[in-house]
Amino acid sequence: MSDIDDGLFAKFIGPRQLEQFQLLQPAKSDDAWKAIPWMTNIMEARQRSAKEKLPILMWIMVGNPQGCT
Description:
Layout: H1 6-10, H2 15-24, H3 42-52
């Protein structure tokens, strides 16, 4: 189910806890955002958007990317 060796965890926790741990593992579909061809140049993104008639999603952050202010 997961990429983590469940046998290692089974030595330290019980079967119920192991089952709960397995439920917490991210699904392969959780990484679907990595397949999006993200662009960092707004002008190139605008040209591509116009050509393909698709919208632009802009993600703008101000401050420290770790949320430390």
